[in-house]
Amino acid sequence: MSVPEKVQFFDQLRGAVSAGTFVRVNLGHPLRDDDAVHNIFVRPVQLRDGLYLSFTYRHAKRDVVKNLVPEDAYVLLEELIGGSFANAFLSLTTGTAQLTLRKGRSARLILGRAEVAAVPSLTHDRPKERMVSQQAPWLKELGVTNPDGTIRPSMEAKFRQIHRFVELLSPLLTEARLLAGEHPLRVTDMGAGKGYLTFALHEHLRSVALRPVSTRGVEVRTDLVEHTNAVVRRMRWEGLEFVPGSIAGTPLDRTDVVIALHACDTATDDALARGIDAGATLLVVAPCCHKEIRPQIVPPAVLAGALHHGILLEREAEFLTDALRAALLECAGYEPRVFEFISPEHTSKNLMIVAIKREATVDTKARTRVQELARFYGVKEQRLAKRLGISLI
Ligand SMILES: C[S@@+](CC[C@H](N)C(=O)[O-])C[C@H]1O[C@@H](n2cnc3c(N)ncnc32)[C@H](O)[C@@H]1O
After folding, report:
1. Extents of the domains making up the chain
2. Which terminal residue of the chain has fewer beta carbons within 10 Å of its beta carbon, N or C?
3. Mean pLDDT for the chain?
4. What pLDDT is attached to residue 270?
5. Does 192 sit in the ligand 1 pocket, CB within 6 Å?
6. Which mutation among 226, 264, 270 tests ligand 1's pocket best, with the greatest number of atoms within 8 A of CB?
7. What is the distance in A from the centroid of ligand 1 to the CA of 31?
8. The domain 153-387: what is its CATH number?
9. What is the pLDDT of residues 141-195, one digit of tens each?
10. E strands in the chain
């Protein structure tokens, strides 16, 4: 272990484990494509015969846990960092250290401010390792948690949503090969609101990306922009800012990731169109109200009776809008996925569309599918189609 940055990282880790100030190590950015383990999370646990470091190996669909005494844990971590994972994020109650080690590149160690003030419970049966720590100071600042780190009763659903969002995005960022690169990673959150997801994503990226991260939240309400920027200042975070403006009108330079969760009606289409224009590799939207299509639907004869019922017409309009969006994303060279991202018992607006850029060329077969689908329902206009210059008639 002759790399000085690695030596310094392990000195900090060993010192913190002895002093009781060690919070966690997260390993990310697997170095082999075939590696089934996306991340490893390491935390201290107090067992009957002493202190252990508990390793959680996160696979796509399951976690595997093993506990090691600290000296064995250090040996394993030394092998894993730079061997299986390029990125190691160390969190102590006194500060953070992010180590990046890749073959052929010089090592990088970035030291930062502490993200938590105290070590969480050391009991072994602690709930599953969370991707968003309940103790994160920004959650307190945004009113999601109380000063003692417990979740406010009225914010439990919001916390679940924030957590699920990061959990879903984490493997997508790896799949889209966004964690490493020559330039800073640029993220834009359209319709950022109170910034819950913007803060969560920025914090997550800071701990897993191998390049600086620059995150911008665009929000039309200036009071919210002032509030979120004030929180950024209090947190003394770098690379995160909120700007006032509309999704359609705010200039967007090159960006790698565009997210827009619950932006109203066609604002979702504007966000997708802006992301496509800006060459984004990853687009993530959770559509909100679907007003544009409903009044245009002229039901085909076989559906006329069913769509006479308002609720069925509303659901059909939602289905059609999002089906068109997915097909339009294919037209633009993206691979779309549509799924429920949180249980419908928490919110009915739980559909998520994720798209990863695959092709530079326009898919003409997808264009035909879009037109056939629109024609079937008599729909002549849809915002994203218009923004992409695709005629529905
Ligand atoms: C329902 S909130 C969602 C906030 C955040 N994305 C989330 O999911 O937690 C929608 C936010 O988008 C903002 N918004 C709606 N339409 C917008 C537009 N066209 N341009 C910019 N912001 C917009 C609203 O002011 C509001 O703060």
Report:
1. 4-127, 153-387
2. C
3. 89
4. 95
5. yes
6. 264
7. 37
8. 3.40.50.150
9. 999 999 888 999 999 989 999 999 998 998 888 888 888 787 899 999 999 999 9
10. 22-30, 37-47, 50-59, 63-68, 85-92, 95-100, 108-112, 185-190, 213-219, 240-244, 257-261, 282-286, 334-340, 351-357
